[in-house]
Amino acid sequence: MRSVPNAKDKVLATYRAGSGNGGRNGTNECASMQGWLPTGNYRVLNHTKRHNGGRSGINGYAIQVQDKVCKNHRTKRTELFVHSEMNVNGTQGARQPGRDNPYRWDGVRDYYSLGCIKLTPAHIKNLFAKAAHYGWPTRLKVAN
């Protein structure tokens, strides 16, 4: 969305997104590395098209947001990103018949995450293009 002074904010784009791992705690925003990203406002810390999270981390297009204490006031959620499944350079990883490649978008199960927000590769690239055109936001609002 783009803020418009003295008017209703303008919707620039909408995307399907996923958060949580789909398991027993998949919607629990206080379940670290499992649940939804906690509801609330976040500061956008940085963004890059070449995030390198290593062999078991997130790679490629990524937007990092601030850590958040969830609604139970005890659990601090850390290492929070909006990202997709891709290689460091933004390309798709190779198909791995019979198993999931964490660096390749293979379908709806790839919306699952360890608590971040995940978009398809096409959607996150579109989001980056819109942010570059309109200006990068300084905050993100998450509503479940």
List keywords for this structure.
144 residues; five-stranded mixed β-sheet; two-stranded antiparallel ribbon; 1 helix; globular; transferase; Transpep_catalytic_dom; LD_TPept_cat_dom; L,D-TPase catalytic domain-containing protein; peptidoglycan synthesis
Instruction: Decide which structural class fits the backbone.
Output: mainly beta
Q: What is the ordering of alpha helices and beta strands?
A: EEEEEEHE
Estimated radius of gyration: 15 Å
User: What share of the residues does DSSP label as strand, in percent?
Assistant: 15-25%
What composes the largest sheet? 5 strands, mixed
Low-pLDDT regions: none
Distance between the termini: 17 Å
What is the helix fraction of residues, given as a range?
Answer: under 10%
Global mean pLDDT: 90
Query: How many discrete domains?
Result: 1
Strand order of the largest sheet: 6-5-2-1-7
Count of helix runs: 1
Please count the beta strands (DSSP E, at least 2 residues each). Answer: 7
Q: What would the principal axes of the Cα set say about the shape?
A: globular
What report would you give on this structure?
By secondary structure, the chain is mostly beta strands. It has 1 helix and 7 strands. It has one domain (40-142). Strand 1 and strand 2 form a beta hairpin. 10% of the residues lie in helices and 24% in strands. Residues 1-143 form the L,D-TPase catalytic domain. This is L,D-TPase catalytic domain-containing protein.
